[in-house]
Structure formats: structure tokens, C-alpha cells
Design goal:
It is built from 6 helices and 11 strands. The protein is α/β, with parallel strands linked by helices. The structure holds S-adenosylmethionine.
Length: 226
């Protein structure tokens, strides 16, 4: 599939897939999107946890890993981060992405994120552990009640509908701890309804660009079944 490195509105890079007519990040800003959706409205919701367990769907360029590492440093968090990726980017593509400069990020650490072995937990620094899974999300069975936050960063439902199925949402709901949250950029009514169907409480929140283009946060609320 032909891949092109592009610039988004905040100056940060992204990858465009011509055949799919789909981009890895928002055209309005890859870093802005990552920080607003996944960090501000995802990770930091759980900043009181002694160790925050994160699961990312679609690790791609590793941008959300980078912004999470920076948030961990800034807010003194300890993070256990797992990410799944079915079609990893090429190591040769790393040099064309400008996240290291744009985030003022350690270049060796950026390389390490991508070069560490799949399926083995790695300590990237004292407060951040990363485990990457080279799998298709549909092919794995997640254990119950593992994660505090899920970053759901799949390609859009119009482009890759199978990633937004009821079965996948059921699995992700089970994999969250009680009061765990799933955050995503997609607020389509059909997707929010599906999230509700599997048990989530769903809210729409202001988006990254002056509050426009809303985002979605779904919570696994504690239900007293007594
Ligand atoms: C919107 S991009 C994610 C961007 C990524 N979070 C980043 O910051 O670069 C979607 C990602 O999901 C991956 N993907 C596609 N199908 C998948 C599947 N079945 N299971 C897991 N990952 C998949 C793609 O290869 C791509 O990296």
C-alpha cells in the first residue's frame, strides 16, 4: 500500500495511505489530537492511580506512546502501557516523522519504542513499561479487568468497519477495570449507540480545535447488581 508522509495543521507529521484514502492522525494536528484526546481526556482522568494501565489499539507511529511518556514525566505517573499493531510502520519511515523535534523528545527513546521486541515487557524508563503486541485486534482475547484506559485509535469506521464491531467493543469493555475509560476521536451516532449497547456510559466532549469536532469518552461504570 502506497504510504506518504504528510504534515498536519499543527506542523506535526502523519502518514497518508493513498489506497485507503485515510490518514493516521487528524489533518487538524497529530500532536494536538494525541494530547487532547488520549492524554488530557484519557490518561489524566486516571492520574490518581498508583500505576495506570493503558491499552492502545493501533500503535502506528508511536505518537501516543511518546505523549504518554512525556505526561508520565510531567505529572509523576507510573504507566504500564500495552499497544497492539497489526501492520507496524517501517523503521526506515521513522526519520521522516518530526515528532522527536516537535515534542523535544529523546531520539534514542523514539527508536527504542519501535525497535523493542514484540510481546516482551520493556522498561523504557523508571516509570514507564511498554509491551507491544504484533497482532490483529480481532485475533486476540483480552483478559478481563486489566486496563484503566483504552486509547481506541483505529482507522475510521467508514474505512475499517470491522474494528468498530459490537464484538470488539464487548471485548474491550470486559478488558477494562470498573470505572475504566475508552477514548476515541469518533463520535458518530452509530458508534456511540454500539458502545452503549455493550454497557458503556458514553459522553461527547469538546474536541481539540477550539472545542470543535467533538470526541468520545466511554466509561465502564460500576453497577451494583445486588
Ligand atoms: C489511525 S492509525 C493509528 C495511529 C497511531 N495511534 C499513531 O499515533 O500513529 C490506525 C492503526 O491501526 C493499525 N491497525 C489496522 N488494523 C489493525 C488491526 N486489525 N489490529 C490492530 N491494529 C490495526 C494500523 O496499522 C494503524 O497503525
Amino acid at each position: 500500500m502506497k504510504r506518504q508522509i504528510v504534515r498536519t495543521a499543527d506542523g506535526s507529521s502523519s502518514i497518508y495511505l493513498e489506497e485507503m484514502d485515510e490518514q493516521y492522525h487528524s489533518k487538524h494536528g497529530a500532536i494536538a489530537e494525541s494530547e487532547h484526546i488520549f492524554i488530557q481526556n484519557g490518561l489524566l482522568e486516571k492520574k490518581a492511580e498508583p500505576v495506570i494501565s493503558v491499552f492502545e489499539v493501533g500503535m502506528g507511529t508511536g505518537l501516543n506512546v511518546m505523549t504518554s511518556i512525556q505526561a508520565a514525566e510531567k505529572h509523576k505517573l507510573s504507566i504500564n502501557y500495552e499497544a497492539i499493531e497489526a501492520f507496524p510502520i517501517l523503521i526506515s519511515e521513522l526519520k521522516d516523522l518530526n515528532f522527536v523535534e516537535a515534542l523535544n523528545f529523546d531520539p534514542m527513546l523514539f527508536q527504542k519504542i519501535h525497535k523493542t521486541e514484540w510481546g516482551i515487557e520493556q522498561s523504557l524508563n523508571t516509570n514507564f513499561r511498554l509491551t507491544k503486541w504484533h497482532e490483529k485486534l480481532q485475533m486476540i482475547k483480552l483478559l478481563p479487568a486489566q486496563y484503566d484506559v483504552i486509547y481506541f485509535d483505529a482507522f475510521a469506521p467508514e474505512k475499517q468497519g470491522e474494528m468498530w464491531s459490537k464484538e470488539i467493543f464487548e471485548d474491550l469493555f470486559t478488558a477494562l477495570k470498573y470505572d475504566g475509560i475508552l477514548v476515541t476521536y469518533c463520535v458518530k451516532g452509530e458508534i456511540r449507540r454500539r458502545l452503549k449497547e455493550v454497557g458503556f456510559t458514553v459522553e461527547k466532549l469538546p474536541g481539540p480545535i477550539g472545542g470543535k469536532r467533538e470526541i468520545c469518552r466511554a466509561r465502564k461504570e460500576f453497577k451494583d447488581e445486588a
